Description:
The protein is mainly alpha-helical. It has one domain (5-41). 74% of the residues lie in helices and 0% in strands. The radius of gyration is 9 Å and the shape is globular. The termini are far apart.
Amino acid sequence: xxxPLQVKKICNRGFNEHLISLLxxxxxxxxxxxxxxxxxxx
Length: 42
């Protein structure tokens, strides 16, 4: 499973945390959190 391009373009921490709270797929949450970590390091 890949992260949608729309999500990749968003590096807004608050929005992504809200998005994560709406997701129910654990694997997807892990992928999204990994992407968030990359965003935060930039």
